[in-house]
């Protein structure tokens, strides 16, 4: 399995057009600023689907990931996957439990890892893949990332104390929940650097993108990323679409739909990959909060990025985006994988801040639908879900439940992806239910732990300077 760049320019110094998995594992972007994608999605035939139905989660994960990571010897990959998906790390041997919420809606429980958010599923595997790849090549790596909350903590928990790796995580100062802040800033491992940037998430993300685009700086300081454009994360997320499908159907003749609370479009893009591989997915419903750039695109064909002042801070901070960093991958598929067309569209986007895909035939062909959800609707949904099923859901998951209920079809199970546990967003739970979210015992004292972070202005120069001084 080889990877290409969405903009056609290839990877690394030599701009190699097609590279294997390990060559893109530690990188976010191609040399031309494009994103890595497989040259073709693997196709799963009916016999394979039947054989996969009764596998355990770790075994299924191995079968899926090996199709994308063909340059890692199977015995090594199996070891890495089995060491990642344990009952100890994810709270139960199922790893991803499925819970019925009534009315044809089920919830895929993705948030039982160490940071209580779905990003752990991908990031815990990534930590082990990184350690493996670095040990193999004797390299060091300085991971630079931007987070509005969950990506950062998941990356830090995956890489804390690992040999040969340091983490530099930019976050918008004062914009994460107290719980998310405590989760990240309480880590004391010297290889973890929390950089609190005086700005919004997109400024953090732009700084990381600028660093990623500076090939010589990256090389000089062994810099890589784990933000949501990392391809290995998408691959790890593909697994639970298969898992959710098997757990919600009794034969492989059935179809299911998924509703995904979306921000940077990584989670739902993994669903798109699963569908392209042949998983019988009816619809992929993209659910957004008030920052509705994606919902607008799926409704109108117009993609218009928002300015930072137009981007509002909501009770679902992990979805407060002005543009979606993985979206380029989908558009590449929508334009029939034509890198010239994709590059032209991105040139338009950079010039005008918008583009339009007027011919909307793709919407049906790829099964996409969308919807959005306000704060008041989240509160109402948290309440109604609790009243009807006794389950307390976090506000991000509530966005998806609200939108899912609008898209349920008879005879097609609708799976909502749970992206965080409610304990991470207790203020909103109190507002909705008047009670505290159930607190996971291992994190009871989290808010009282000592915190450490470095404050920096929202400039590329300040972050570069810090990296030069602290990179391993
Ligand atoms: C990251 C995140 C999202 C958005 O996922 P994307 O892959 O960026 O679309 C939604 N909810 C929570 C809780 C998250 O952490």
Radius of gyration, Cα only, in angstroms?
A: 21 Å
- CATH top level of the domain at 96-116 and 232-433 is Alpha Beta
Unique bound compounds? pyridoxal-5'-phosphate
The proportion of residues in beta strands is 15-25%
Low-confidence stretches: none
Q: Order of strands across the biggest sheet? A: 4-5-15-10-11-14
Q: Can you tell me about this structure?
A:
This protein has 472 residues and is an alpha/beta fold. It has a domain at 96-116 and 232-433: Rossmann fold (3-Layer(aba) Sandwich), CATH 3.40.50. Helices cover 44% and strands 16% of the residues. It contains 20 helices and 16 strands. Strands 4-5-15-10-11-14 form a 6-stranded mixed beta sheet, with helices on both faces. A 5-stranded parallel beta sheet has the order 9-6-7-8-16, sandwiched between helices. Helix 6 crosses helix 7 (150-159) and helix 6 packs across helix 11 (231-248). The chain is globular and about 55 Å long. The two termini are 32 Å apart. The relative contact order is 0.14. The model has no long low-confidence stretch (mean pLDDT 94).
């Amino acid at each position: 399995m080889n990877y290409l760049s969405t903009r056609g320019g290839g990877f690394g110094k030599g701009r190699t057009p097609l590279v294997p998995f390990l060559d893109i594992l530690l990188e976010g972007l191609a040399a031309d600023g494009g994103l890595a994608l497989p040259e073709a999605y693997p196709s799963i035939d009916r016999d394979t689907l039947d054989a996969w139905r009764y596998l355990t989660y770790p075994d299924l994960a191995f079968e899926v990931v090996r199709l994308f990571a063909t340059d890692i010897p199977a015995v090594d990959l199996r070891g890495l996957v089995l060491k990642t998906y344990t009952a100890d790390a994810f709270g139960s041997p199922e790893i991803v439990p499925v819970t019925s919420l009534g009315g044809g809606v089920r919830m895929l429980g993705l948030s039982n890892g160490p940071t209580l958010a779905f990003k752990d599923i991908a990031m815990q595997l990534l930590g082990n893949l990184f350690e493996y790849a670095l040990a193999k090549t004797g390299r060091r790596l300085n991971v630079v990332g931007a987070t509005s909350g969950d990506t950062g903590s998941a990356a830090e928990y995956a890489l804390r104390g690992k040999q040969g790796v340091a983490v530099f995580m930019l976050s918008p100062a004062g914009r994460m929940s107290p719980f998310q802040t405590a989760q990240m800033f309480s880590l004391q491992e010297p290889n973890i650097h929390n950089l609190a940037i005086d700005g919004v998430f997109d400024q953090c993300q732009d700084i990381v993108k600028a660093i990623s685009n500076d090939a010589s700086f990256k090389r000089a300081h062994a810099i890589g990323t784990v933000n949501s454009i990392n391809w290995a994360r998408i691959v790890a997320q593909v697994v639970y679409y298969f898992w959710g499908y098997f757990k919600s159907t009794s034969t492989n003749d059935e179809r299911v739909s998924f509703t995904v609370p979306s921000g940077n479009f990584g989670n739902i893009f993994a669903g798109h990959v699963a569908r392209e591989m042949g998983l019988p997915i009816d619809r992929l419903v993209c659910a957004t909060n008030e920052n509705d750039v994606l919902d607008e695109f799926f409704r109108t064909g117009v993609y218009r990025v928002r300015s930072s002042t137009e981007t509002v801070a909501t009770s679902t901070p992990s979805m407060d985006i002005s543009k979606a960093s993985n979206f380029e991958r989908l558009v590449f598929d929508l334009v029939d994988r034509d890198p010239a067309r994709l590059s032209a569209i991105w040139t338009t986007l950079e010039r005008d801040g918008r583009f339009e895909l007027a011919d909307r035939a793709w919407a049906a062909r790829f099964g996409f639908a969308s919807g959005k959800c306000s704060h008041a609707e989240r509160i109402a949904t948290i309440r109604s879900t609790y009243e009807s099923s006794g389950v307390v859901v976090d506000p991000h998951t509530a966005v998806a439940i609200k939108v899912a209920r609008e898209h349920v079809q008879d005879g097609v199970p609708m799976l909502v992806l749970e992206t965080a546990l409610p304990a991470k967003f207790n203020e909103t739970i109190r507002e909705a239910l008047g009670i505290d979210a159930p607190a996971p015992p291992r994190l009871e004292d989290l808010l009282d732990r000592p915190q450490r972070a470095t404050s920096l202005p929202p400039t590329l120069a300040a972050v570069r300077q810090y990296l030069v001084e602290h990179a391993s």
